[in-house]
Amino acid sequence: MITPIKVKDIKGIEKINKIASDYDFDIWIHSKSGMADAKSILGLYVLKLNEPLTLVIPDNVNFKPLFKELEEFLIIGH
Fold first, then answer.
1. 74 by DSSP, 3-state: which?
2. Phi-psi region of 77 (alpha: psi -120 to 50; beta: other; left: phi over 0)
3. pLDDT in tens, 40-72
4. 21-55: b or e for each residue (b if 16 or more CB lie within 10 Å)?
5. Contact criterion met (CB below 8 Å) for 4 and 78
6. Which helix (H) or strand (E) holds 6?
7. Strand stretches in the chain, DSSP E
């Protein structure tokens, strides 16, 4: 599953990292400049927040609880 997200600041990065760390499946964030494991705070700090970001998770997982926690970052109607 791939969905666009918007992160405004470092606090948002830290919140995404905290939420992602609670899930047992891979969660990645891709940007034009690279990709980062959402469970790696150092990896997330490398992302450029002014670029379009995409949340990438496996297709075979229950994503609804994760999306509920991340709803402030999700771009709906892309």
1. strand
2. left
3. 999 999 998 888 999 999 999 999 999 999 999
4. eebeeebbbbbeeeebebbebebbeebeeeeebbb
5. yes
6. none
7. 2-5, 28-31, 34-37, 53-56
Q: H helices then E strands: how many in the chain? A: 3, 4
Residues 20-33: pLDDT tens digits?
A: 999 999 999 999 98
In total, the chain counts a number of residues equal to 78
Rounded to 5°, angle at Cα 51 from 49 and 53: 80
Q: Which one-letter amino acid corresponds to residue 29?
A: I
Give pLDDT, residue 58: 97
Backbone angles phi, psi at 6, to 5 degrees: -130, 125
Identity of the amino acid at 57: I
